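Quality-control log, excerpt.
Job 1 of 2 completed; input and output follow.
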Amino acid sequence: MVTTILKKDGLDIENSVAIVCGPPIMMKFVTFKLLDLGFKDSQVYLSMEKNMSCGIGKCGHCRIGPYYACKDGPVFTYDRIKGLPNIWD
């Protein structure tokens, strides 16, 4: 599992960002591990790929709270979406 290979050793966390993509369940646990290592919410970038049927924010398939992955993303910082329901679905 990717969370077992994430270590703080050698990381300059203050001058780093983390970019996470993959299955939602993996992204969830990697994000929590990065936060445990000391990354700030604003340093964690998530690729929130969703079914983007229309690509212009009309159909709602890619909606993440008030955002649409097709036109507002698909990459969001964790601080921008962390309080929204069902972000890991």
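Job 2 of 2 completed; input and output follow.
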Amino acid sequence: MRFSIVPNQVARQPWRVIVPLTALVVFGSTVLYSAAGGHIQPWAVTHVLRFCVFLVMALVISRIPRELFKLAAYPIYVTVLVLLIVVELVGAVGGGSQRWLNLGFMTLQPSELMKPAIVLVLARFYESLPAAETASWRGLVPAAGLIGMPALLVMLQPDLGTALAICFGGFTLMFLAGLPLRWFVGGGLAAAVIAPIAFFTLLHDYQRKRVTTFLDPENDPLGSGYHITQSKIAIGSGGIFGKGFGHGSQSHLEYLPEAHTDFVFATMAEEWGLLGGLFVLGVFALILRWGLNVARRSPDRFGHLMAAGMTVTVFFYVAINLLMVMGLAPVVGIPLPFMSHGGSSMMTNMICIGAILAVRQWQLRR
């Protein structure tokens, strides 16, 4: 019998993901502390407390058995879909968008919950669909409907970034499920034809301006291009080693908008430089690699699709935010996971982590 000073219950915890997540959150809290002018309020301490609460939530999710996940997939999807409809009827308006439900004790953004919900319901759908029918219309039309309904409701809020995240997670599940590649190529060509029409007919004025600003931010540096211009200045001025903790002029002098949410990476890069950026990218790489490994080792189709889809959802957050703050994608209001201040984003990403942990637990119980 081997003796260990570490209790077995502690040793069995998923430290391979808990440690990187904690490192990101702690680093993020230091950036938020600096962005607040050297104060733990209102962002840094709340950021850490939320992580602790949602980490417990993720560990609870990880104990849910496979059959309960399958049983709850469609009810969860329908519940979130109903909440999106309620948002359209009585949702709170903020910043020109109608995205939230005021529950009294908290403000809920149901569109965030749809990101993991769409992965869960599609994993359940394709797990129950006979493999021979995956490449037929039975594998395409119902799945497209499951994706299209919430995406349309979110677009009406309007929230283009979240709608794209829902579609990205859903289409990734369809690809991983084994739908023919020619369907995706055809869909891409159709999207290329429809995109110019949608740009002029479906997008709101501010959404069109985001696209034109992305293409030429210097055309209006003090207006619509201000966010991207200031973000690139902050990142570039940090150099290799940064200006030093607490010495970020762009954020402290309030040149950089949303320094604690959407543009937290720019706030960090100004003070911590390229080395800080590489640290953040390296930690995210560890988390995403862990998620993909869990998906790859899953013995069943449901676990494989769910773990891969949840990992891709986190990846979408990271990729779009980093591209956005560097001026490589339009500004769509997607925060950086585990570093940006925001309860809805933290909750969504920790639900994804909890679902991946659940698949890992199923593997350990084999």
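Post-run check on job 2. The chain has one domain: 14-364.
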